Amino acid sequence: SSELTQPPSVSVSPGQTATITCSGDKLGDTNVCWYQQKPGQSPALVIYRDIERPSGIPARFSGSHSGNTATLTIRGTQAMDEADYYCQAWDSSSYVFGSGTKVTVL
Amino acid sequence: QVTLRESGPALVKPTQTLTLTCTFSGFSLSTSGMCVSWVRQPPGKALEWLAFIDWENDEYYSPSLRSRLSISRDASENKVVLTMTNMDPVDTGTYYCARTVSSGGSCLDDPLNLWGRGTMVTVSS
Questions:
Q1: Residue B39: strand pairing partners
Q2: In this structure, is the dihedral angle defined by the CA atoms of residues B8, A35, B49 and B109, taken in order, positive or negative?
Q3: For B111, which of A33, A37, A100 is closest by C-beta distance?
Q4: Which of A72, B10, B32, B119 could form a disulfide with A20 if both were Cys (CB 3.0 to 4.6 A apart)?
Q5: Which of B49, B61, B63 sits opposite A97 (nearest CB)?
Q6: For B67-121, how does the pLDDT look when each residue is reduced to its tens digit (9 = 90+)?
């Protein structure tokens, strides 16, 4: 099955922009979604179909996808955005998760 | 209100079979487009998708774990059951169930839009 690679960690100052990438050899063949997981909590969907935001997700979260790389951008990052973020795509008949990125708001 | 809740043993011994139940409310797995997945997460590690079952009772499994997994549903009781055989300490982690609502003919293009709180399973003798 395919693998999705993310940077292990991203640090950002409050109010600045955090950028998280997700890369995979087969990512060009599928759309991508992103989940936020805060400590001790279940994952929550923040982006689906590359760029769509579920109801209730703030507009500071946005997604993009080009070729084999997808990107989650958090503009005007807030302390409450500190969490682990996972990309997810599909490979044949399987869901595939990325390796995860810990976002720290300094 | 849509909810999912996982239940099962907190501790299993190596080589035993794990049986987990996802009990859900607020939707029917018999409704076209509905799917329920299982995802696990070892402590401090990444998410790993295990399996899902859809409204047509079709089953999909992680290729790396297919031989050990079985997923089934009791649509009348709003439950999805996952069994995993030959448990090992590396299988220790939190096990989540999650729902997908397909906008097309398959859940293989739609996200896990609602998750349960998870249940922690420890494999130890």
A1: B49, B96
A2: positive
A3: A33
A4: A72
A5: B49
A6: 999 999 986 779 999 999 999 999 999 999 999 999 878 888 899 999 999 999 9
Tell me the chain A residues in contact with residue B108 when contact means C-beta distances shorter than 8 Å: 90, 93, 95
Q: Give CA angle at B56 (A55, B98), nearest 5°.
A: 40
Average pLDDT over residues A16-34: 95
Q: Quick one: average pLDDT of B51-73?
A: 95
On chain A, the residues whose CB falls within 8 A of the CB of B46 are 86, 97-100
Other beta carbons within 10 angstroms of residue A41's beta carbon come to 13
Its sign, for the CA torsion A8, A13, A15, A16, is negative
For chain A, percent of residues with pLDDT exceeding 70: 98
Of all residues in chain B, the percent with pLDDT exceeding 90 is 90
- Among B46, B64, B96, select the one facing A99 at the smallest CB separation: B46
Q: What is the DSSP string of B40-102?
A: EE-TTS--EEEEEEETT--EEE-TTTGGGEEEEEEGGGTEEEEEE-S--GGG-EEEEEEEEE-
Q: Is B55 on the interface with A (CB under 8 A)?
A: no
Using the Cβ of B59 and the Cβ atoms of chain A, whether some distance falls under 8 Å is answered with no
pLDDT of residue A40: 95
